[in-house]
Amino acid sequence: MSHLTCNGEPVDAALVGAALVNYGHFTSLQVRGGAAQGWALHLRRLQQGTRELFDAELDEARLLGWLRQALERCGREDASVRITVFSRAFDFRQPLRAVPVDVLIGIAAPATVPAAACAVLPVRYQRAWPQLKHVGTFPLFQYRRQAMREGFDDALFVDAAGRVGEGSTWNIALLAGDEVVWPQAEALRGTAEQLLVAGLERQGLAQSRREIPLEALPGFSGAVACNATGLWPLARIGGCRFADSQALLERLRQALALEPWRPL
After folding, report:
1. 227, 171 in Cβ contact below 8 A?
2. Three-class SS of residue 38?
3. CA 54 → CA 46, 217, 253, distances in Å?
4. What is the DSSP string of 142-158?
5. d(CA 86, CA 94)
6. Three-state secondary structure call for residue 245
7. Which of 19, 123, 143, 221 could join 244 in a cystine, given CB atoms 3.0 to 4.6 angstroms apart?
């Protein structure tokens, strides 16, 4: 497209045109005091996505330079950050053509997790290409809207085989006795989940990954949602209530605290 307008005003056709094609990937993270948890995991995600979608490589030094510059321009040491990799030169008619990649960095106020335990609605959905945090987010937010219309706070995805997978923008940990259980299904494995798994391992606490049919949820006593924003307890999944979600939350907070905040 050579010319685009928004609300009657001209906009950057190359930039907005790439957004309309909706081909790219991203990572989201929290920055506190100019530092981040799990930066290596975010970088690995970005490099993996860039190789898979564009057959290209990201330069870590340049990426960090752009990120520091964006934070400085906003005057923020505490922030929510979204780093999106796309290409203004990408042509969906010739998707194998080599193109240079672009990096879009968004800076916003620090995010907070829900203050109260949440109720989530199970819905039948599995994200496409779950190994990538790609920009095809329409189903995630539409299912969240559907859940909220039915009186819930968010949606929990269950695959075609009836197995618990992930939330709309988060992963889920469950408590069975003294063991933390991570659902084994096709899902985007978030940076927070990976940090928690490592933290629990350091503490020598019991954890496992296994398939969890939706009907098996009453066998668990606690549930916690996690993403790069933080951790929050789940009071209910559909009609299944959890009495020990706060106890699981405290255990996971202790595990996450073992991961240092590293200066960017």
Report:
1. yes
2. coil
3. 11, 40, 37
4. HHHHHHHHTT-SEEEEE
5. 15
6. helix
7. 221
Summarised one tens digit per residue, pLDDT across range 137-189 is: 999 999 999 999 999 999 999 999 999 999 999 999 999 999 999 999 999 99
Question: Phi-psi bin for 18: left (phi > 0), alpha (psi -120 to 50), beta?
Answer: alpha
Amino acid at 258: L
- For residue 21, give the H/E element and its range: helix 13-21
Which tokens in the block code for residue 4?
A: 């685009």
What are the distances in angstroms from CA 82 to CA 139, 152, 156, 170, 238? 19, 26, 23, 15, 31
CA of 46: how far to CAs of 32, 52, 224, in Å?
A: 21, 10, 26
Backbone angles phi, psi at 70, to 5 degrees: -65, -40
| Tokens at 58, concatenated | 């990201």
**How much is the pTM?**
0.94
